[in-house]
């Protein structure tokens, strides 16, 4: 099930690795185009890609900075891409992101690029004119250097190389071995010095083709009084397939083959050290001391002491208190759309402007709950699109969100105050990744963010025939819980008319208005009721009616022929239909449809009918019991959905009574 | 809250007003342009009322500017509906970012982005600023809305110019300006309000053509060089000046072109050869700097980099043709689906694209220089049947592009179903695409990787719950203006079981979902016809009995036509049909008849064949 293996080593301390290994010589040399390169074809790769990385080589290291006061990080990249056809032209537009904290900016050096073509029996070279390199300001922290390679056509080979020198030690370059096009050869090497210690996370379904660490004894270096050699760590992956976007995955970031670095410690030349990462309990301590985290909760509490009227919650149960608190924050503050585990504004600004990021809202919520005397702690997590957290290594950088964990009776509940239409005891679905860290002094608790509680939608359908029998009238009562309720509420809030869209799409005419229940009460399950009219089909004295009115799924959501990654459907789901049909006078039900039941760990399907007097009741329900399925379950899911589609959409046949002699 | 609006609705009686007014509305929209000492300054003040959570999406303010323009006096504040100040937005909340359209590699445009959030509804966002343009070409193209979903209650446009400063004005759905003058300045004032903005409908004109709009240009301007909007001729003359030094094709490339076509006699064959050379060696990349929105990069730039935007590539192609002794003209055009007809009487920059026109032997050939995979001279749906502005030193003029006929846009589809017992079925689709669909599939075929093609095709195929066994896109050669798609499908459950009978419903015609006449508010504007021809054959492996075969259908009227025949044996059912919607402009008076025609076609082609194996 677990697709990738992860390692993290304090790189400096791992002297045990292989010594003096001769780097394996890649068959590609920058600047030298061979016949082999020119003959490389799209069809040499699976899926006929538009382009491929022939090689992609990165090298990071450290140099003494200009002031000779310390080190800068260097990153050098040499890349060759073969462009096969127009589908690959995007890869001839290059973007190089540079970081700035507002003061100093990462500098780019030795940028060069060249396009090679085969023309009239010889190789031609068109170098990039640096005049055509532009700078785009993305936001306060990122600037993109951009250029389009000149003279690119089908079959071109492009090469580019550059060096970035950065004062930001925490920005030691991460490396992607995998791209959306195939990569023939990818190599990353890092030359470590004794002053900075990093841990790294390697994400890959298989070992790298080469992974080695050795001391580079060829050059002796000195900084201050310390003499040292570089430690080289080198990783090579060959023939890496294109990353193919599959549906139902959390984030590309959870699957791309890559290596991430995190600064762990700084060792000064005078012998003392600063730990950057240490242990989870220490990190939690740090967070609790942080001005925009622990201290923000403290100041929120003293603010609430003055401004929150305790009488409001007198006599309320824990659950009511929680509902009250979440509602209080939602009512008084709005979300500015930004994530963040830290509060982005001071409490003063936040209360004055009544808007803030996730940190502002949910740390404030935590404070409010604590102020109410409840057992509440912040939980830091990484959203689905941000990629999963690997709890093996105490690092904070992966976390981009904070929610609240609160004890309600003997239950632990996760809460969030950013989405007005989300139930108070439910995290917005963007938070449903693997796990979150409870930020509580002297503890190291992880909480599972996944919910196996299914979100359910239930349609109760009462069908009657019009007097001339050419159509049916149906009263549909829909109830939805959890995420289904959240979705329905959002649809309603966007425009109430939108609620009727799914019915109209299936050819139904609305009779009267929609009535709703609990659309404004996010604490309760949502309800809506519509009355519709829909033509039936009469052929040769027979009336055909789909008891669930074409509302069930009619297209298989699992379309791929094969599957590589786990199938992540975010949360467990249940869908139920109950149809009660009054048989028109003079007609009889031809036969009840076959019953169908499947029940296993993954899925539950039940379809059955009941006939009594002039009424037929057909019930269909299916449940996807798990939020995540193994890739190997894909075929089963596909098969079950074919069954669901077929059975839930079958029609009942009513025949004129006098024409029927069936027992 | 909603209940209250429900009542409001009853009184207003317009479904359009409902959701827009609920979320946000622009209370004031004031634009004040001043031309002084040859410089243009805009003072703008806008007040938006946000009524609820949903309305917050209109709470982000964007102020576009270019590197050399100067923005001053920018103030943004949150107010109560009474006007009482809640708070001022701080400088640190204003983001400054590059504004680069998604089709561009680079533009030197920037935007100030100010996300304003507040939590007590309703509240107002009031903002004002002054922008001093470092040069100008147009004074304004004023449509006083912030979004097509947000109505504007009060809008005002004021333009002050020195006395005797000639301007030209185009206005639509708005009263004439009140003009006043003092000793030094002339002032024009327009006021309007837009309490409701219509929704766009199927094949309706763009919403913008229905809104109050004022476009003002100076009669004479200085933009790069001096020019005038007096007539299309004068404007064209200015544009040709921009092209003057842009024809600097390197000698090496000139001789290459000459050599390339030396063996060809006719100019058309030469042009074709050169076009293919262009297609094979260049690509579309947009970089806009300074006046670059109007002035092309020179031919030498494209010659070196082998890329450029539409202007640069068109200019380069013109230079290549000239090297072979062929004269061609650049034509500005408004490319796209729903276009605003060119305003003949208001010479101005009304275009978004450039193509090349080749007047050969009385025949006119149109050349699209930004597409590497269409045949030479191919006129696609995005440039057909409209006016284009031909740039010729002294004789610039508007000319019309050719219109596509039903035959030129006809999509053909041949489907063979092999029907087995138990609802098992294989289907083979064979499509031949023309017109718009050709454009789409041709692009897909030439510019996207196989996995994207497959996903698109899977979604495109009009069946549900199937396994795509194989597929293939193919084109006879580069000069073909058709592309074919072959797809083999395994249908998981073909047709529907009605008891023991199998009911077969042929795939519906793909007809746009036109609104019923009582809902339709806007006329129809279709600039080209819709035409499809289908042949659907069901092969039964077990003999079947068919319930009923419908009679042939033949409908012809001014809106279009339908021809349909079904034939059957116990082994085979065949359905042939061809339908055309002629298109053109249909006003609201004719709409009910048109709608009736569409409905008629739909109901005539909505068939169900009931088959039974009990013979």
UniProtKB/TrEMBL annotation, chain A:
Keywords: Signal. Residues 73-195 form the DUF3857 domain. The keyword Methyltransferase does not apply. InterPro entries: DUF3857. Residues 1-19 form the signal peptide. Transmembrane segments: none annotated. It comes from the Bacteria. Coiled coil: none annotated. This is Uncharacterized protein DUF3857. It comes from Prolixibacter denitrificans.
UniProtKB/TrEMBL annotation, chain B:
One of its GO terms (molecular function) is peptidase activity. Residues 257-367 form the Transglutaminase-like domain. The keyword DNA repair does not apply. GO terms for biological process: proteolysis. InterPro entries: DUF3857, Papain-like_cys_pep_sf, Transglutaminase-like. Residues 38-191 form the DUF3857 domain. Keywords: Hydrolase, Protease, Signal. Pfam families: DUF3857 (PF12969), Transglut_core (PF01841). Residues 1-20 form the signal peptide. This is Transglutaminase-like putative cysteine protease. It comes from Prolixibacter denitrificans.
């Amino acid at each position: 099930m677990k697709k990738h293996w992860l390692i993290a080593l304090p790189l400096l301390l791992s002297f045990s690795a292989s010594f003096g290994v001769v780097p394996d010589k890649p068959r590609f040399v920058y600047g030298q185009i061979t016949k082999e390169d020119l003959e490389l074809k799209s069809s040499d790769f699976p899926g006929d890609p538009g382009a491929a990385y022939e090689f992609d080589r990165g090298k990071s290291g450290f140099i003494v900075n200009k002031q000779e006061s310390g080190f800068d990080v260097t990153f050098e990249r040499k890349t060759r891409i073969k462009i096969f056809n127009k589908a690959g032209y995007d890869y001839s537009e290059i973007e190089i992101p540079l970081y700035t904290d507002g003061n100093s900016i990462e500098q780019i050096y030795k940028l060069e690029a060249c396009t090679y073509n085969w023309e009239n029996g010889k190789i031609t070279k068109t170098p990039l004119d640096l005049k055509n390199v532009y700078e785009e300001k993305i936001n306060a922290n990122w600037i993109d250097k951009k250029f389009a390679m000149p003279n690119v056509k089908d079959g071109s080979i492009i090469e580019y190389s550059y060096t970035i020198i950065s004062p930001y030690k925490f920005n030691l370059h991460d490396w992607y071995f995998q791209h959306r096009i195939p990569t023939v050869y990818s190599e990353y090497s890092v030359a470590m010095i004794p002053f900075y210690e990093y841990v790294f996370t390697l994400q890959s379904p298989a070992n790298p083709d080469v992974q080695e660490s050795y001391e580079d004894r060829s050059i002796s270096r000195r900084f201050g009084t310390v003499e040292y050699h570089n430690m080289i760590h080198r990783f090579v992956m060959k023939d890496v397939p294109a990353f193919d976007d599959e549906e139902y995955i959390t984030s590309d970031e959870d699957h791309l083959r890559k290596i991430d670095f995190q600064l762990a410690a700084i060792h000064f030349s005078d012998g003392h050290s600063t730990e950057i990462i240490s242990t989870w309990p220490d990190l939690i301590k740090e967070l609790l001391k942080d001005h925009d985290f622990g201290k923000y909760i403290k100041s929120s509490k003293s603010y609430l002491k003055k401004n929150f009227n305790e009488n409001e919650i007198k006599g309320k149960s824990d659950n009511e208190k929680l509902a009250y608190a979440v509602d209080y924050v939602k009512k008084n503050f709005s979300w500015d759309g930004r994530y963040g585990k830290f509060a982005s504004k001071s409490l003063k600004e936040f209360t004055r402007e009544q808007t803030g990021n996730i940190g502002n809202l949910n740390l404030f919520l935590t404070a409010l709950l604590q102020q109410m005397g409840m057992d509440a702690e912040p939980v830091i997590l990484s959203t689905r699109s941000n990629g999963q957290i690997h709890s093996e290594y105490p690092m904070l950088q992966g976390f981009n969100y904070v929610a609240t964990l609160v004890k309600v009776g003997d239950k632990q509940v996760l809460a969030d105050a950013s989405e007005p239409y989300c139930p108070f005891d439910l995290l917005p679905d963007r938070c449903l990744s693997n796990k979150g860290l409870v930020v509580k002094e002297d503890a190291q608790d992880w909480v599972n963010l996944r919910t196996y509680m299914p979100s359910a939608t239930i349609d109760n359908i009462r069908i009657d025939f019009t007097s001339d029998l050419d159509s049916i009238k149906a009263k549909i009562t829909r109830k939805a819980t959890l995420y289904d309720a959240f979705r329905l509420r959002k649809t309603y809030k966007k425009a109430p008319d939108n609620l009727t869209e799914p019915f109209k799409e299936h050819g139904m005419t609305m009779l009267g208005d929609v009535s709703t229940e609990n659309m404004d009460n996010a604490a309760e399950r949502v309800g809506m009721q519509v009355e519709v009219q829909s033509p039936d089909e009469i052929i040769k004295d027979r009336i055909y009616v789909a008891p669930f009115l074409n509302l069930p799924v009619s297209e298989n959501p699992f379309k791929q022929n094969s599957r590589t990654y786990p199938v992540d459907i975010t949360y467990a789901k249940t869908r139920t239909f109950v149809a009660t049909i009054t048989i028109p006078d003079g007609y009889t039900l031809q036969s009840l449809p076959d019953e169908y039941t499947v029940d296993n760990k993954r899925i539950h399907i039940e379809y059955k009918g009941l006939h009594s007097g002039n009424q037929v009741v057909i019930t269909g329900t299916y449940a996807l019991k798990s939020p995540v399925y193994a890739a190997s379950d894909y075929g089963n899911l596909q098969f079950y959905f074919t069954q669901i589609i077929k059975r839930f959409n079958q029609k009942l046949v009513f025949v004129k009574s006098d024409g029927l002699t069936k027992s | 809250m909603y209940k209250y609006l429900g009542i409001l609705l009853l009184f207003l009686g317009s479904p359009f007003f409902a959701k827009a007014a609920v979320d946000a509305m622009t209370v004031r929209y004031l634009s004040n342009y001043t031309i002084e000492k040859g410089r243009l300054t805009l003072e703008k003040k806008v007040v938006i009322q946000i009524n609820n959570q949903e309305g917050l999406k209109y709470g982000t303010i964007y102020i576009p500017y270019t590197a050399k323009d100067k923005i001053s006096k920018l103030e943004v504040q949150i107010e109560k509906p009474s006007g009482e100040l809640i708070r001022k937005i701080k400088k640190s909340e204003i983001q400054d970012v590059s504004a680069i359209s998604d089709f561009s590699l680079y533009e030197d445009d920037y935007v100030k982005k100010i996300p304003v959030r507040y939590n007590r509804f309703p509240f107002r966002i009031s903002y004002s600023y002054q922008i001093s343009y470092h040069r100008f070409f147009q004074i304004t193209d004023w449509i006083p809305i912030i979004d097509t979903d947000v109505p504007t209650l009060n809008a005002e446009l004021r333009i002050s110019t020195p006395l005797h400063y000639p301007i030209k004005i185009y206005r639509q759905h708005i009263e004439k300006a009140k003009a006043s003058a003092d000793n030094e300045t002339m002032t024009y004032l327009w006021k309007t309000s837009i309490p409701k903005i219509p929704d766009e409908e199927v094949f309706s004109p763009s919403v913008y053509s229905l809104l109050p709009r004022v476009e003002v240009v100076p009669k004479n301007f200085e933009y790069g060089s001096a020019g005038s909007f007096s007539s299309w001729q004068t404007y064209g003359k200015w544009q040709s000046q921009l092209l003057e030094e842009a024809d600097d094709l390197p000698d090496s490339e000139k001789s290459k072109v000459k050599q390339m076509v030396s063996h060809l006699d006719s100019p058309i064959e030469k042009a074709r050869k050169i076009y293919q050379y262009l297609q094979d060696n260049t690509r579309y990349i947009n970089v806009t700097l300074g006046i670059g929105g109007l002035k092309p990069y020179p031919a030498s730039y494209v010659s070196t980099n082998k890329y450029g935007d539409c202007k640069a590539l068109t200019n380069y192609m013109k230079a290549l043709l000239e090297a072979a002794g062929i004269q061609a003209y650049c034509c500005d055009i408004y490319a796209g689906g729903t276009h605003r007809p060119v305003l003949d009487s208001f010479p101005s920059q009304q275009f978004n694209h450039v193509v090349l026109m080749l007047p050969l032997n009385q025949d006119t050939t149109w050349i699209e220089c930004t597409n590497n995979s269409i045949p030479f001279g191919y006129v696609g749906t995005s440039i057909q049947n409209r006016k284009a502005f031909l740039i010729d030193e002294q004789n610039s003029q508007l000319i019309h592009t050719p219109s596509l006929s039903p035959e030129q846009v006809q999509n053909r589809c041949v489907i063979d179903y092999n029907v087995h017992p138990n609802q098992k079925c294989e289907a083979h689709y064979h499509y031949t695409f023309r017109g718009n669909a050709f454009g789409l599939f041709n692009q897909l075929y030439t510019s996207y990787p196989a996995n994207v093609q497959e996903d698109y095709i899977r979604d495109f195929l009009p069946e549900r719950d199937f396994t795509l066994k194989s597929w293939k896109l193919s084109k006879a050669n580069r000069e073909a203006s058709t592309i074919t798609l072959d797809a083999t499908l395994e249908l998981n459950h073909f047709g529907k079981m009605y008891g023991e009978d199998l009911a077969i419903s042929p795939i519906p015609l793909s007809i746009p979902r036109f609104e019923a006449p009582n809902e339709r508010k806007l006329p129809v504007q279709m600039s080209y016809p819709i035409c499809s021809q289908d042949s659907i054959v069901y092969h039964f492996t077990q003999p079947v009995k068919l319930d009923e075969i419908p009679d042939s259908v033949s409908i012809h009227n001014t809106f279009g036509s339908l021809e349909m025949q079904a034939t059957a044996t116990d082994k085979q059912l065949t359905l042939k049909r061809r339908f055309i919607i002629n298109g053109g402009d249909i006003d609201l008076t004719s709409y009910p008849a048109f709608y009736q025609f569409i409905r008629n076609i739909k109901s005539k082609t909505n068939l169900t064949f009931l088959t039974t194996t009990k013979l």
